[in-house]
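Lines hold sequence, tokenised fold; shown next:
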Amino acid sequence: MVVKLDFDKLRASRQASWLALDLFMVVLVSVNLVFIVFDTLYAAADMQALLAKVAPDLDHFYRERIHAHFLFYDLIFVSIFLAEFFFQWVMAVRRELYPRWYFYPFAHWYDLLGCIPLGSFRALRLLRIASLLVRLQKMGVIDLTDTAIYRFFAFYFDAFIEQVTDRVMIRTLDDIRREVEHESPIAREIITDVVAPQREALVRHLSRRIGRVAQQSYENHHDAIRHYADSVIRDAIGKDRNIRNLERVPLIGRSVVENLRESINDIVHEIFDRTVRDISTAENNRLVDEAVTVIIDAILEEHATEGEPEELGDLGTRITVEAIEVIKERIRVQHWKQRLDETPPAAASEPA
């Protein structure tokens, strides 16, 4: 357990006097809490009997002078705490630490509630110590990240936050699923209210995307496409009666047919190359734009043929519900338990 101190950053922050006041108040809070705990224990009959046996004079003094007037002494501490609270409030307003003057009590609610002289509220005075440590950590004056206590609380705080957020998200997703399952037109509403206003931008994006995909796919499969075209042309030439008759011409027939086949191959490949280039060129892709526009207009058509809206709604509902279930399964994975299982036994038991 190592706590690193950096007094240079403390001096550079020019807040040494304020931290000294905080430290004094922390010491005062600690004394007050020890006093409260001791008086609470003293209220038990066994504790009184033990103290009377060990130190009868101290027992008599504490019972008559302190325990009987416990609330009075606690109010002395409370008055000091309240005076310091209002002093810090005034200084915060003068230094403009918060956007509004009344923000300070909300930011330091634990200090204010800790001044209430009731048992459950007195425990909030411990937060004063925690808040000071957090301030020093943020300023870089101390470094508690290597301490077992810090790792212990950080781990279980993260686990608590994860459990709470997971439950909230699952509950929210369940509500969304019920709404989707009982509202079949939701897919149509998404298309008409969300997709339709972006129709032109969607057409431009899809057409450019189709052009790039076509160009890349053609380059990756150029040899396979050329081989396929060659085989198709060869079969077509072999089945053509006129070409077979031409091939029977002595001396030049076979050569003419072979040259004809190569010429047809070159023409077909040139058509393929030119078509793909035209599709992938922004200036010459009007055909793709029109095709994409026709598809999107068919989806967005308000007066679709009978049965299509229901099919589209059911499809959208199924996809949405299945996606929600996948997300829920992912959320149910408790990562903090996985980290706990991965932690060596010695390290896991170190904070305790």
